[in-house]
Amino acid sequence: MTSTRFTAACIQMRSGRDVPKNRDAAVALVRQAAEQGAHFAQTPEMTSLLCRDRAELFEKIGPQARDPVLAALREVAREKGIMIQIGSIAVKEGDKVANRAFLIDQSGDIVATYDKIHLYDVDLPNGESWRESATYTGGDTAVLAETPWGHLGMTICYDVRFAALYKALAENGASFLSAPAAFTRQTGEAHWHVLHRARAIETGSFMISAAQGGLHEDGRETFGHSIIVDPWGRVLAEAGTAPGVILAEIDPALVTEVRGRIPTLKNARAFQVAAAPNLKPFGLAASA
User: Which of 161, 178, 160, 231 is nearest to 41 (CA)?
Assistant: First the structure.
């Protein structure tokens, strides 16, 4: 892993139902981040379109090869010589949609993609109901991508609740982890900060997560608070709810330092779960 420091930017957005408008907003904010010195910029989940209506979603999206947001951000990467992580865009795959992230290098080439593994199916106390599995097809592969500064573990939004995914990425060499998101306001207020700090602390890694924020055209309200956390769990930069850019200097050497001080990855051991003799069986499963 290189010890070269770099500046990371999170691009906070409030994507709506107009793909060209969302594209132009993302392009403008990434250019702003580059002009402010960012070497790496990340956009949020569903950069290109936030739309609850399934029919409208299918009408407005297409295959990866024809996606206008992907094409535009590849051009910005070439123009500005900046690495860009598209938090995700909706990509048509048959009768369903892939929630797909992209890592684009400074030449504008796609060097990695990741399809969101964990799908958000939930009924919230405030009456909101979400069934991502009705529209989206979940991925089945964790992705580790190479950057000039070290390895990046790519995840999306709801993935952040599944600690084993981040442990596996870190054990396989990730120094930087990401969970670009469109967190609801309600769940974000309760869990966004603690989940990001926990994933950073557990793995001794940086967490870099751009977010959607505010009240969107389709009626949903997202939490915002794009965040960059260091391996010790310190918040280096954080947004509010408005669209914009946050930046932080990332020192990869801190990963080695923190993992040396608290070697949780090295000290982790496989284990089994056993029921005590007086515990009636309720389908207790073994774990490792």
Answer: 178
- Phi, psi values for residue 272, rounded to 5°: -120, 160
From residue 284, how far is each of 86, 130, 146, 272, 277 by CA, in Å?
Answer: 40, 29, 39, 11, 13
Q: Where are the domains of the chain?
A: 6-267
Structure tokens at 214: 């505010």
DSSP string over 11-25: EEB---S-HHHHHHH
Q: Are 209 and 227 in contact (CB under 8 A)?
A: yes
> What is the pLDDT, as a whole number, of residue 285?
58
pLDDT of residue 235: 98
Angle 163-171/185-203 helices, nearest 10 degrees? 30
Q: Which two tokens stand for residue 219?
A: 């009626």
0.85 surpassed by pTM: yes
DSSP-derived pairing of the beta strands 206-209 and 174-178: parallel
Active site members? 45, 116, 157
Please check whether residue 113 is in contact with residue 143, taking contact to mean a CB–CB distance below 8 angstroms: yes
Strand partners, 96: 93
Eight-state DSSP code of residue 140: -
The pLDDT assigned to 85 comes to: 99
Parts of the chain with a pLDDT under 50: 288
Distance separating alpha carbons of residues 165 and 174, to the nearest angstrom? 11
Non-local (6+) Cβ contacts of 262 within 8 A are 204
Residue 288 is predicted with a pLDDT of 45
pLDDT at 93: 86
The CATH architecture that domain 6-267 belongs to is 4-Layer Sandwich (3.60)
For 21, residues 6+ apart whose C-beta sits below 8 A from its C-beta are none
